[in-house]
C-alpha cells in the first residue's frame, strides 16, 4: 500500500515516525516538534545509556527533488557537528528518516550513494530509512495508520477500518450493525440541540465553534503529564511569527516540557502562561490531537450551563461517523486538522440513561421503560444502544468487547450533572470507572470523554483524578464570538450588509462588562444574536430578561405561522412552564432521566388543563403546538419528550414558580408565595440555575425583600462553611437582578463581602477551593452597575489605614477583582496615600497594591524610580511592579540586600521589563528547594532561566546572568548533580561575597542525590579550602558525631561562623546531638544580633523543611522549658522541634514580650490550634493564645488536621462561632472550619417534597 505522507506536513510526519519507532525500539524518547533539539527528534536507550539517535527530514514535494542523494547529504552536512557532539555523549547508532523517493541502481542509485556518505562521514553506525522503508513498517501497524488517516485514500481507510471484525458470519453482522448504527446517529446529531428562532434546524457542522478548554484539577494540582501535552499542543498550534513576549515565555515552557512525570503543577502557573501568550486551544482541537489523548485518554470535560459541552460531544462523535461513512460532502466543511486526526469508532450515550440501565431499566425502550435482563454495565448499555439504533441487528456485550479489542474506540458519556440523584450518580461513577478498567486491558485504543457541569453539591461523586484528567471549557473569546456571528449570519442567509451590522452591534455591546459576560456563553450568544436581529441594539440587561425576550420573539414568529399558537399562546407558555417545573423537580425527587413519556405527558397536560378550567378537547392541538411549532420539547428517545437543552428547562421552571405564586394580602397567611418559593429552591444547589432565573423575574418593589432573603441564606446554620450561598449572591448581583434598587444592591454587597465573606472569598479564589467547588468559580468582581462603587466606597478607608494582616490581604484581593473604573479610583487614592507615607507604611502599601493588582503603566513612575530606602526597594521586588523601577546605580545594593534578607521564601517572577528581578530569580533558595527536593528543576529553573542576553547595562545583572550560565542546559538535573550547584554558588559568591541566600542553597545541597559526593577531606566546617557544598556534605555524614559538632562550634569565632554552624546543625545534625549541645547552643544564640536570629528563626519556621532531620524532635531540659522567656532565640528557633505536650502548652501562656518574630508567632499559632482540635486546649485557652500571637504581620497557611477519632459534630457549634468571629482568627482556622462544616453538611430536601409540604400549589 502507498501512503500520502505529504498530507501530514512536517510536524505530523515527525510524530508518525516517532509512533513507528515506539513499535520497533524500547525506551524511545520522543522530542517535541518545533523546538531546538540538538539534532535529535528521538532517542533510544539501552540499559539506561544513550544508544540510538533518530532524526527526521521531511520534504513537501518529494517528486520534485531531482537528486535525492544530494538533498540528503547536504542536509547531513549541516548536522555533522551535532552528530559528533552526540557521539561524545555515548550515542552509537544514527538513523535518518525521510519521505523522499529513493533510487536503487547499484552504486549510482540514491540508496547506495547515501550509504557511502554515512559510512565515510558519520562517526557511528548509520542508516537511512527511505519512503519504502516507512511503507513496509506501516503496512503491519493498523493502529498507527488509523491515527494518521490522511495518509490513506478514502477506500483504503474504510477497508482498513472494517477489517478484522471476526469470523465471517460475525464479521458481516457486526459490520452491518455498526454501519447502520453510525448512520442513524449521524442523522440524529446532524443538528445542534438548541434550535433558534427563525432558523431551520441548525447544522452542527455549519454553526460549531471550538470553545477553548484548559486543564484543571479538583485537587488544585495538575499532573505534569497533562500540562506537558497541553502546552505542547499550545505551541504547535501557534503562529510562526510569534511576538517578542511569546519568545520570552516559551523557553520557560520548553524547560517545563522536559520535567519529570511525577511533578504536580498549580493551575495558576498555567493561567499565567495563557495570559502572557494570549493563546487558547479549542476543546475539539485538543481532544483530536493524538499526542494529547495518548497521554490523557480519559477526560472529564466540565463547563457552565449552555457553554457547549453537549455540542462538543456531538461534534466529536459526528466527525468520526462522517469519516467512517465516507460522507465527503459533509467532511469538506470541517477543518483539515480535524479530518486528519485519528479515526476511532464513536459510541455516545447520556449518563442519565446509563443510570437507568444500571437500575435494570431500558431507557431507550420508551415510556414507561421496559425492564431488561442484560448485563447492568457500561458495555451492556453501549451494546443495547447499538442494537436498538441499528434497526435491530443482534449486537451484544461480546460484540462490544470484540470491537474494543480490535479497533480504536471513543466512548462519549454526556451530562453527569443530569443524574440528579447522588446515589445514582455514585453508581454511574463506579460503573464507568470499572468499565474503563475492564476495557483498557485488551483495547486497541480506548478514549473516553465525559461531560458535566461542575458539581454544585458538596460531596457529590466525581471521577477519580488518579484515572481521569479534567478539562474545563473557558469563556468564548471576543474573536470567537465574532466568528460565531459570521457562521450564524451565513446559516440565516443574511445579506452581507445585515450580517456586518449585527457584528458591529455585538462588538459595541460587548464593550459593556455585563453584555461581554453574557456573550461568553454559546447559548446566550445565540440568543443575543437573535435579539439583535429582531430588535437592533435595544437589548435587555438581565439574564432572565434575555430569555424572556427570546421566548417572546420565538412566539411572535409562530403566531404568524400557526393558528394553534396564535389562539393558545398564553396557554402554551404556561404549559411549558408547568412541564419544566414538573420534569426538573421529578428528575431530582424520583431519580428519573428528566424525560417524560407520551402517556405521562398527556396525563400531566390533562390534569393541568382541568385545574386551569380549560377544555380538554384542545389537548391534541396543544401537543402539536408544543412539539411541532414551539419545539422547546423534543423527542430523542422514542415515546418520550424532554426539553431540548437544560437551561431552557430551568428558565421555564423559574418562570412557572414566579408567575404562579399567589398574591397574599398583608393581613392574611398564604402558602407558596414568591418569598416561600425562593427560600425553598435557593437552599438547593441542584436548583441554582433555576434560582438565578427566578430571582431575575422579581420587580423593583420586590427586590429589597429578595435581598433580605439572600442575606439570610448566608446565615443559615446548614449553609455554614459552604461557598454556595455567597456564590449565589454574587451570581445574582452579576445577573443584574438588583440593578433597579441601590438599597437592595448595597445590602447584598455588604453581606457578600462582610469580613467573613472577604476572608472566605480570598481562601476560595486564591487558596485552592476554586478547584474543589468549581461550580461557584465566578469572578468575585462587580461592575459599576452591580455594586462595585458601594463596595469600594465602604471599604476604601480600611484598605489604606489598617495594618497589613490576613484580613487586609483578603480585602485587597477582592478589591483587585473589581471593574476598571473602581480600580482606577482605588489606584489614584493609593498613589496619594503612598506619597505621604513613611518607609514602613510604604512597604505595607506595596503589599496591598500587589494583592489589589493596582500596578499600571499609567501610574506615577516617580513613586518608585526616586525611591532611596533600601527596604522599600526590596518591597517593590516582592510586589512585582511591572516595569523596572530600581535605578541601575542601586542594583548592587538592592541585590545584596535581597541575598541577605531574613525572608528568602519569595519567588521572583521574570519579565522582559524587569531585568534585575529576573536575574535575581535564580538566587531564590525556595526555588532551589523545590528543584533539589522535588525534582521540579525544569519547572522552576526553567521558569527563570529563559534565553536572554548575557550582557546588560547593569554590571550587577550581568554578574547574575554569568553565574547562572552553566545552568542553561536541556539535561538540567541539579537534584542529582552537586557540581552544578557548586559551580553556581561559586560564581554567585565571587560576584557578591558570601550571602544568606547562597548559604541556604549550600545547606540544601546536602539533599542532592549524588552518593559519590561525600565531601571527603572537608572535615572543617569553616575551612576555605573546600566549597561550602562539600563541607555540608561532610557534615551530613557526621550527623550523629557529637564531638565533631562540638569542635566546630568551639571553632566558630565570628558571628558569621556561628550563624553558619547553627544553620548547618539545625538541618543536618541528629536530634540527639542537638539535645546534648543544648547549653552551648543556648549561650551561642543569646550572643547573636537580632538580624541573625531573625534569619535563623525564618529558616526554622519554614513549612518546607530543607532536610528530613530538621523535623526530628529534640529533647531540651524541662527546667529550661519552664523558665524560658517566650522571646528566647533558642525557643523561637527550636519551637517546632519540641515535642507536643502540657509543658509546651504552658509556654504559650507566658507573657508576650517584644521581639517575637512573625515566623515564630505563626508557628505558635499552628501548634496551639492543632492542640485545640485534639482536645488539649479549651476554647478559652485557645482564644487567649490566639489574641497573643495573631497580630498584624502574622500569616498562616497550613490546614488543621482533624483526627478521625474526634467527634466532629461536637465541634460544629464552635466551628460556626469561629466563622462568625472570623476577623480575629487565622486563615487556617477559617479554612479548617469551612472544611469540617462542609464535611458535615446534609443533602437538601428535594424541592418537590418542600413544595408538597408547604402547599405551594394547593
TrEMBL record:
What is the scientific name of the source organism?
Streptomyces sp. JL1001
The record's section on PANTHER family has: SLR5058 PROTEIN (PTHR46844)
Q: What is this protein called?
A: NACHT domain-containing protein
Pfam annotation, one family: NACHT
SUPFAM superfamilies linked to this entry: P-loop containing nucleoside triphosphate hydrolases (SSF52540)
Q: Where is the NACHT domain?
A: 298-490
The organism's superkingdom is given as: Bacteria
Q: InterPro entries from the entry?
A: NACHT_NTPase (IPR007111), P-loop_NTPase (IPR027417)
Amino acid at each position: 500500500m502507498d501512503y500520502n505522507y505529504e498530507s501530514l506536513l512536517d510536524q505530523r510526519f515527525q510524530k508518525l515516525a516517532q509512533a513507528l519507532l515506539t513499535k520497533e525500539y524500547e525506551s524511545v524518547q520522543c522530542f517535541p516538534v518545533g523546538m531546538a533539539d540538538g539534532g535529535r527528534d528521538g532517542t533510544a536507550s539501552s540499559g539506561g545509556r544513550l544508544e540510538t539517535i533518530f532524526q527526521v527530514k521531511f520534504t513537501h514535494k518529494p517528486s520534485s527533488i531531482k537528486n535525492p542523494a544530494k538533498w540528503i547529504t547536504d542536509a547531513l552536512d549541516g548536522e555533522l557537528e551535532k552528530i559528533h557532539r552526540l557521539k561524545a555523549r555515548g550515542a552509537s547508532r544514527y538513523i535518518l528518516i525521510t519521505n523522499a523517493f529513493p533510487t536503487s541502481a547499484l552504486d549510482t542509485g540514491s540508496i547506495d550513494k547515501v550509504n557511502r556518505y554515512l559510512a565515510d562521514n558519520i562517526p557511528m553506525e548509520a542508516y537511512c530509512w527511505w519512503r519504502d522503508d516507512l511503507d513496509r513498517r506501516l503496512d503491519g501497524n493498523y493502529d498507527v495508520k488509523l491515527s494518521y488517516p490522511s495518509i490513506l485514500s478514502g477506500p483504503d481507510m474504510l477497508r482498513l477500518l472494517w477489517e478484522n471484525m471476526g469470523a465471517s458470519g460475525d464479521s458481516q453482522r457486526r459490520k452491518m450493525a455498526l454501519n447502520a448504527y453510525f448512520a442513524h446517529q449521524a442523522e440524529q446529531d446532524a443538528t445542534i440541540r438548541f434550535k433558534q428562532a427563525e432558523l431551520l434546524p441548525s447544522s452542527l457542522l455549519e454553526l460549531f465553534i471550538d470553545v477553548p478548554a484548559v486543564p484543571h484539577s479538583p485537587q488544585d494540582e495538575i499532573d505534569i503529564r497533562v500540562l506537558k501535552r497541553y502546552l505542547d499542543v499550545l505551541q504547535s498550534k501557534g503562529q510562526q511569527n510569534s511576538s517578542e513576549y511569546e519568545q520570552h515565555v516559551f523557553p520557560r515552557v520548553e524547560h517545563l516540557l522536559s520535567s519529570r512525570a511525577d511533578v504536580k503543577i498549580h493551575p495558576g502557573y498555567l493561567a499565567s502562561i495563557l495570559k502572557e501568550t494570549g493563546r487558547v486551544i479549542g476543546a475539539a482541537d485538543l481532544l483530536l490531537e493524538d499526542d494529547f489523548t495518548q497521554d490523557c485518554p480519559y477526560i472529564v470535560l466540565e463547563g457552565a450551563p449552555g457553554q457547549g459541552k453537549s455540542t462538543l460531544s456531538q461534534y466529536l462523535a459526528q466527525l468520526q461517523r462522517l469519516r467512517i461513512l465516507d460522507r465527503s460532502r459533509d467532511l469538506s466543511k470541517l477543518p483539515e486538522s480535524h479530518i486528519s486526526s485519528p479515526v476511532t469508532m464513536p459510541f455516545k450515550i447520556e449518563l442519565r440513561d446509563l443510570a437507568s440501565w444500571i437500575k435494570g431499566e431500558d431507557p431507550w425502550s420508551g415510556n414507561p421503560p421496559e425492564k431488561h435482563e442484560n448485563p447492568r454495565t457500561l458495555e451492556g448499555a453501549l451494546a443495547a444502544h447499538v442494537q436498538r439504533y441499528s434497526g435491530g441487528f443482534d449486537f451484544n456485550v461480546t460484540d462490544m468487547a470484540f470491537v474494543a479489542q480490535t479497533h480504536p474506540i471513543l466512548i462519549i458519556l454526556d451530562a453527569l450533572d443530569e443524574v440528579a440523584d447522588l446515589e445514582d450518580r455514585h453508581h454511574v461513577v463506579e460503573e464507568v470507572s470499572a468499565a474503563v478498567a475492564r476495557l483498557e486491558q485488551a483495547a486497541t485504543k480506548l478514549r473516553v470523554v465525559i461531560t458535566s457541569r461542575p458539581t454544585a453539591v458538596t460531596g457529590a461523586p466525581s471521577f477519580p483524578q488518579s484515572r481521569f484528567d479534567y478539562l474545563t471549557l473557558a469563556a468564548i473569546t471576543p474573536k470567537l464570538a465574532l466568528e460565531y456571528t459570521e457562521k450564524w449570519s451565513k446559516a440565516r442567509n443574511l445579506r452581507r450588509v445585515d450580517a456586518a451590522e449585527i457584528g458591529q452591534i455585538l462588538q459595541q455591546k460587548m464593550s459593556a462588562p455585563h453584555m461581554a459576560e453574557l456573550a461568553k456563553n454559546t447559548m446566550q450568544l445565540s440568543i443575543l444574536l437573535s435579539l439583535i436581529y429582531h430588535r437592533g441594539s435595544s437589548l435587555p440587561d438581565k439574564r432572565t430578561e434575555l430569555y424572556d425576550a427570546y421566548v417572546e420573539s420565538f412566539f411572535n414568529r409562530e403566531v404568524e405561522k400557526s393558528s394553534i399558537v396564535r389562539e393558545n399562546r398564553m396557554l402554551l407558555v404556561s404549559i411549558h412552564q408547568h412541564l419544566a417545573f414538573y420534569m426538573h423537580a421529578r428528575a431530582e425527587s424520583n431519580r428519573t432521566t428528566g424525560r417524560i413519556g407520551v402517556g405521562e405527558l398527556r396525563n400531566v397536560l390533562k390534569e393541568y388543563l382541568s385545574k386551569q378550567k380549560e377544555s380538554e378537547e384542545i389537548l391534541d392541538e396543544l401537543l402539536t403546538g408544543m412539539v411541532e411549532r414551539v419545539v422547546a420539547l423534543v423527542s430523542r428517545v422514542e415515546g418520550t419528550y424532554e426539553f431540548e437543552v437544560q437551561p431552557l428547562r430551568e428558565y421555564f421552571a423559574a418562570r412557572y414558580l414566579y408567575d404562579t405564586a399567589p398574591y397574599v394580602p398583608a393581613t392574611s397567611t398564604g402558602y407558596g408565595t414568591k418569598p416561600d418559593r425562593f427560600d425553598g429552591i435557593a437552599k438547593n444547589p441542584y436548583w441554582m440555575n433555576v434560582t438565578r432565573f427566578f430571582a431575575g423575574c422579581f420587580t423593583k418593589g420586590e427586590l429589597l425583600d429578595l435581598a433580605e432573603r439572600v442575606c439570610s441564606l448566608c446565615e443559615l446554620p446548614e449553609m455554614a462553611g459552604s461557598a454556595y450561598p455567597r456564590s449565589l449572591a454574587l451570581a445574582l448581583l452579576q445577573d443584574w437582578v438588583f440593578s433597579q434598587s441601590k438599597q437592595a444592591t448595597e445590602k447584598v454587597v455588604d453581606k457578600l463581602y462582610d469580613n467573613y465573606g472577604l476572608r472566605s472569598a480570598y481562601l476560595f479564589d486564591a487558596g485552592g477551593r476554586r478547584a474543589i467547588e468549581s461550580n461557584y468559580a465566578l469572578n468575585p468582581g462587580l461592575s459599576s452597575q452591580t455594586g462595585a462603587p458601594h463596595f469600594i466606597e465602604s471599604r476604601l478607608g480600611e484598605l489604606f489605614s489598617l495594618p497589613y494582616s490576613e484580613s487586609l490581604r483578603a480585602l485587597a484581593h477582592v478589591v483587585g477583582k473589581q471593574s476598571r473604573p473602581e480600580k482606577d479610583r482605588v489606584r489614584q487614592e493609593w498613589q496619594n496615600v503612598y506619597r505621604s507615607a513613611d518607609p514602613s507604611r510604604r512597604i505595607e502599601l506595596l503589599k496591598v497594591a500587589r494583592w489589589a493588582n493596582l500596578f499600571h503603566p499609567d501610574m506615577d513612575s516617580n513613586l518608585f524610580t526616586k525611591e532611596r530606602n533600601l527596604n522599600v526597594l526590596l518591597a517593590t521586588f516582592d510586589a512585582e511592579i511591572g516595569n523596572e523601577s530600581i535605578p541601575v546605580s542601586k542594583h548592587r545594593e538592592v541585590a545584596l540586600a535581597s541575598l541577605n534578607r531574613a525572608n528568602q521564601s519569595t519567588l521572583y517572577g521574570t519579565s522582559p521589563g524587569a531585568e534585575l528581578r529576573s536575574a535575581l530569580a535564580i538566587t531564590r533558595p525556595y526555588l532551589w528547594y523545590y528543584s533539589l527536593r522535588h525534582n521540579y528543576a525544569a519547572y522552576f529553573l526553567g521558569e527563570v532561566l529563559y534565553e536572554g542576553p548575557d550582557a546588560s547595562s547593569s554590571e550587577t545583572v550581568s554578574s547574575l546572568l554569568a553565574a547562572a550560565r552553566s545552568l542553561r542546559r536541556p539535561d538540567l538535573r541539579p537534584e542529582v548533580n552537586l557540581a552544578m550547584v557548586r559551580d553556581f554558588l561559586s560564581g554567585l559568591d565571587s560576584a557578591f561575597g558570601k550571602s544568606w541566600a547562597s548559604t541556604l542553597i549550600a545547606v540544601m545541597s546536602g539533599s542532592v542525590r549524588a552518593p559519590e559526593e561525600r565531601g571527603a577531606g572537608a572535615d572543617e566546617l569553616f575551612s576555605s579550602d573546600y566549597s561550602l557544598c562539600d563541607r555540608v556534605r561532610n557534615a551530613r555524614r557526621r550527623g550523629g558525631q557529637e564531638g565533631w559538632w562540638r569542635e566546630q562550634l568551639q571553632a566558630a569565632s565570628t558571628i558569621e561562623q556561628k550563624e553558619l554552624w547553627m544553620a548547618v546543625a539545625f538541618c543536618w545534625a541528629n536530634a540527639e546531638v542537638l539535645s546534648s549541645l543544648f547549653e552551648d547552643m543556648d549561650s551561642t544564640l543569646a550572643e547573636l544580633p537580632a538580624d541573625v536570629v531573625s534569619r535563623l528563626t525564618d529558616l526554622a519556621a519554614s513549612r518546607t523543611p530543607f532536610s528530613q532531620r530538621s523535623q526530628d524532635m529534640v529533647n531540651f531540659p524541662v527546667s529550661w522549658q519552664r523558665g524560658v522567656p517566650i522571646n528566647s532565640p533558642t525557643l523561637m528557633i527550636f519551637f517546632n522541634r519540641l515535642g507536643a505536650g502540657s509543658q509546651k502548652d504552658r509556654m504559650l501562656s507566658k507573657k508576650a514580650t517584644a521581639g517575637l518574630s512573625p515566623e515564630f508567632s505563626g508557628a505558635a499559632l499552628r501548634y496551639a490550634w492543632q492542640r485545640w482540635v485534639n482536645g488539649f486546649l479549651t476554647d478559652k485557652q485557645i482564644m487567649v493564645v490566639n489574641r497573643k500571637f495573631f497580630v498584624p504581620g502574622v500569616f498562616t497557611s497550613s490546614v488543621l488536621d482533624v483526627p478521625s477519632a474526634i467527634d466532629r459534630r461536637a465541634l460544629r457549634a464552635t466551628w460556626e462561632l469561629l466563622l462568625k468571629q472570623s476577623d480575629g482568627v487565622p486563615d487556617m482556622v477559617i479554612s479548617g472550619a469551612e472544611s469540617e462544616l462542609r464535611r458535615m453538611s446534609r443533602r437538601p430536601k428535594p424541592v418537590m417534597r418542600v413544595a408538597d409540604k408547604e402547599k405551594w400549589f394547593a
